[in-house]
Amino acid sequence: MNSKRILVMAWENMKQRKLRTSLTTLGVVIGITAIIGLASLGEGFRLGIRERLQQGFELDVLIVIPGSFTAALREPFSPEEVDNVRNVAGVTLVAPVITLPQGKLINEEDRKLNAFTIAAVNFSELSQVYSERFVPIEGEIPDPEENNTVILGYKSCFLNETTQLVHVDDNVTMEIELLGLPQPIKRTLRVAAILGKSGTPGITNFDYWAFIPMGTGLDIVTKEAYNIIVVKVISAEKSEQIAEDIEDVFENPYSISILVPTTFMRQVDRILNFVQLFLMAIASISLLVAGIGIMNIMTVSVMERTREIGILKAIGAKSRTVLAMFLSEAVLIGALGGVIGAFTGYGASYALAYVLSGFMQPQGDQLFATPEQYGMTINPVFTPEWTLIAFIFAIVVCIIFGMYPARKAAKLDPLQALRYE
């Protein structure tokens, strides 16, 4: 008996038991829906996290700090060390930064601005490193020689969305408290530019920063020592190797820390992939439960069709033909459940994404609000690879769990089967 005839007979047998076939197929549909829904949801979540990380970091920019990100284990960088970093192969630009502790800015009305960090930089170098982020919406980036100017981040200039604390060309008073000095150092600066809203997480969110010329910063701290070195490299693909070369120029490579965005993103990617596989494993359990249901239903079906099997064998049907008939039913149930489950999984992923996105939106009116609240929307990614894997997995599970009842049917003795009541 050819394969087409066997499949037709299997389909006709399934149609005769519509309710039983529907309930058996439903188990497969639920399993495939769970697999595809969680797979597309997990992939969308992973890509969403990756996109947000890319918004928060320039992949071709490294950030070098003394010590670790939680503790300073050494003195700030000297000019010689900055020059050594600048001479590393693959480094295209270096922008050293001096951060001024205990600093604040006050406008002409004696109101404090929202500048949480005051940094002395070379305006020209920093604007080249962060060409898309260090861009003013008011005013212009001044020349580095203009030592009486300041560039403000967007939110350092606003009390709220409607009240602006300072405008371009206004004067502000900068007060810096240094250890060993009884009185803070004061400087009057002109607001030369206001940066556009960054709105992204990470160290490069300049919304609450204030930037002063390097000359003004060195005049305040008196000693030329840099707290951060911002390094632009030739390409993101070579950033890890360049980071290792930068470590080698220091006498003690373990005394510095380098933030390499590509390495960080790779680690996050691995974690999210693991989470996605874990969710897939959980979803697969439902398909295995469906497989047990298939084995149970097909075993009952073999008992009900014992005389039919005896007649088939009596007229010459071979054991492998009977085996193929019952396995064909299992394959058809898996294929039908896989196709339906693919569509329901697609719809379920969007429903879950809508619900989860609602929980991940920023909450207002918080007592201890962070400087910026970030909501997130999950967009499921429906990949053909996961669909094909789930479809094949459904058929394989149905074949595995259908093998026992199919073999049982194939091994029936024709005479005993004909006598079965």
- Helix percent band: 40-55%
Give me the Rg, rounded: 34 Å
Total domain count? 2
Sheet with the most strands, sense and barrel status? 11 strands, mixed
How far apart lie the N and C ends?
Answer: 27 Å
Number of helices: 11
> Beta fraction of the residues?
15-25%
Stretches with pLDDT under 50, minimum 5 residues: 363-373
The structure class reads: alpha+beta
Could you tell me the mean pLDDT?
83
What pattern of helices and strands is seen along the backbone? HHEHEEEHEEEEEHEHEHHHHH
Number of E-type strands: 11
**Global morphology:** elongated
Short summary:
By secondary structure, the chain is an alpha+beta fold.
Topology:
Elements: H1 3-16, H2 18-56, E1 61-66, H3 79-86, E2 91-100, E3 103-106, E4 117-121, H4 123-129, E5 136-139, E6 149-152, E7 171-176, E8 185-195, E9 209-213, H5 214-221, E10 228-233, H6 239-248, E11 256-259, H7 261-304, H8 306-314, H9 319-359, H10 384-410, H11 414-419
Parallel strand pairs: 4-9, 6-8
Antiparallel strand pairs: 1-10, 1-11, 2-4, 2-10, 3-7, 5-8, 6-9, 7-8
Helix pairs in contact: 1-9, 2-7, 2-9, 2-10, 7-10, 9-10
